Amino acid sequence: MGSVVVNNIVKTYGTKKAQVTALNGISFEVAPGELFGIIGPDGAGKTSLFRILTTLMLADKGEASVDGYDVVKDLKAIRKRVGYMPGRFSLYQDLTVAENLEFFATIFNTSIEENYDLIKDIYSQIEPFKNRRAGKLSGGMKQKLALSCALIHYPSVLFLDEPTTGVDAVSRKEFWEMLRRLKEKGITILVSTPYMDEASLCDRVALMQEGKLMSVNTPSGIVEQFGKPLLAVRSGNMLQLLRDLKQCREVEDAYPFGEYHHAVMKKDFSQQELEACLKNHPGVTIKAIQPDIEDCFMDLMKN
Amino acid sequence: MRSLKFLLQKEFRQIFRDKSILRIIFIMPLVQLIVLPLAADYEMKNISLSVVDHDHSGYSRQLVQKITASGYFRLNDYSPTFHASMQEVEKDRSDIILEIPAHFERDLVSQSEATLFVAANAINGVKAGLGSAYLQSIIRDYNGQVRTEWMQLPRFNPDLEIAVTSSNWFNPLLNYKYFMVPGILVVLVTMVGAFLSSLNIVKEKEIGTIEQINVTPVKKHYFILGKLIPFWILGLVVMSLGLLIAWLAYDIMPVGSFLTIYVFAAVYLLAVLGLGLLVSTYTSNQQQAMLISFFMMMVFILLGGLYTSIESMPAWAQWITRFNPVSYFIEVMRMVILKGSRLPDISRHLLIMTGFAVLLNGWAIMNYRKRG
């Protein structure tokens, strides 16, 4: 039995004339104690999915359960055992750090002391500022406070909606380390992010695009699925190179990727033919590389 | 119950930290009660008068003197022709023209009859109506004076005459402030009760904190009570402050008991808090809530009997005022403060207000959902 089970969830917004399908038949399962990432660009439907799972919204079709409780029927039970950190900072800006934490502890019928060991790592970093109003904290500290508030009642499942959006690289790294430690305490964590590079930090990821799941697998499993040769190509004239690459018969897809272009090749391509195709580019460097999640996402998006 | 206690604690903390709102809560009654009743005065004073005197007689001068001595009129000009004084009216310098015809004195003495002409600028209907009424009563008085001077009044008036003496009950001096202050007090309580509460709840929606609350197991009615109770208390505090100012500044002490006022105010606040809650469930940001509140406040005040008497409204408008909670409270306030009405006298109002409270709160609670 999974900790989170989602079965064929459909959610549409808007009236009949201008209907937007946010979630189009989503199904997946998250094992207890798993760190599960939902990766997708803005507008993929990540927040809608989280709102349904945290009982804030009703799905049009399909069913889902969290910790064995149905999100429609047993919403009270779910609200007791779920921690939710929305994408936008939504704590009381005019209350202090300590007051916010205390407030959320009491409305969950617990106290800060009771579960202090769970949040100690995180909260101790902002404790020096406990008498500061939440609105006056820096972005990284706000995020730590929000996470502390979401954890204060020792939830069994934690939903984090784009926790690292708008956070600097160092804080992001720190944040993922915090998640690792929480996972060790047996909390199931669902985290959504638009950043592909964070996918490799999850146990399993679901790649999401326009309300559909394209793939659910371990990060390495997704990379293995790629199954096509990938080349990184670079020359003096990058713009022309991209155009030329797309013209080559043997190239399936080409896109800019950092200081290289990535070219997805047909299975049995020959290096000579490619070089012939790019003869206008003197000093072109071509090297075979391992695909990462972003390459897989691009590939899945095309199909 | 424990979570309710903490919800209340949080709410009060937030209210007392929002300095600007707090200032408004306490400065608003001061300004409204001290400035408005003085400014919103129905009594017409300093009506500008133009006199066109074609007679230039002793009597005409006496008449003009009597008019200006009344204190209601300020002599603007003495014009030779009606046309000239009309120009004064057109330039908005004069409100009323009194034209005294030639041979006014002669006609009055020889034929015991003379005519005067009064023309009022009716752009401001109240001013024109009251001004010409004042003028007429002064002229009538003057008329009586002339008659006693010239005519040997018979011991018994040959004409039948009904003499009317009136006495004004409950507000003997027709002090306008006694009428306005209780009404303005009601508007104050309504503002705190309905609008501050709706803005407060919508603010939680706007900032997103309501989401965070909604995923917690906190019960819906606790959350709502946590919102209503602080503003209920605040409303009663503002009303007490208002009653204090009314006593200090205008020497208005309710003839009836404070208990009656507070009992009704307690129920009234429940009703307007329900209204505030209802507004907040239908709006998604403070701007919308503000605009709706503004619109409602206009309707409440103009159809509440604060400035205009409900009895003189057309039937359909009177019908609308029955759905206006403000109109009941204004009426009750005036009844208790001026007349000394007791609870049994306002039982009908109290019953209707209870109905409002149940209906508005019920509707709002049904419409408030923890999930969208």
Pattern of helices and strands of chain B: HHEHEHEHEHHHHHHHHH
Cα separation of the termini of chain B: 26 Å
Proportion of residues in extended strands of chain A = 25-35%
Question: Tell me, what's the shape of chain A?
Answer: elongated
What Rg of chain A do the Cα atoms give?
Answer: 23 Å
Detail the poorly predicted runs of chain B.
none
Which percent range describes the beta-strand content of chain B?
Answer: 5-15%
End-to-end separation of chain A in angstroms reads 32 Å
By CATH, the architecture of the largest domain in chain A is named 3-Layer(aba) Sandwich
CA gyration radius of chain B, whole angstroms: 28 Å
Biggest β-sheet description of chain B: 4 strands, mixed
> What is the strand arrangement across the widest sheet of chain B?
2-1-3-4
Your description of this structure?
- The complex is a heterodimer of chains A (about 300) and B (about 375).
- Chain A has about 300 residues and is of the alpha/beta class.
- Chain A is about 35% helix and about 30% strand.
- Chain A folds into 2 domains: about 5-225, 3-Layer(aba) Sandwich (Rossmann fold), CATH 3.40.50.300; about 225-300, Alpha-Beta Plaits, CATH 3.30.70.
- Chain A is built from 10 helices and 14 strands.
- In chain A, the strands form 3 sheets. Chain A has a 6-stranded mixed β-sheet with strand order 6-7-8-3-9-10, sandwiched between helices.
- In chain A, about 45% of the residues are buried.
- In chain B, strand 1, helix 3 (about 60-70) and strand 2 form a beta-alpha-beta unit.
- In chain B, about 65% of the residues lie in helices and about 5% in strands.
- Chain B is of the alpha/beta class and about 375 residues long.
- In chain B, helix 2 (about 20-40) packs across helix 9, helix 7 runs antiparallel to helix 11 and helix 7 runs antiparallel to helix 13 (about 325-340).
- The relative contact order of chain B is 0.11.
- Chains A and B meet through helix 2 and helix 3 of A and helix 1 and helix 8 of B.
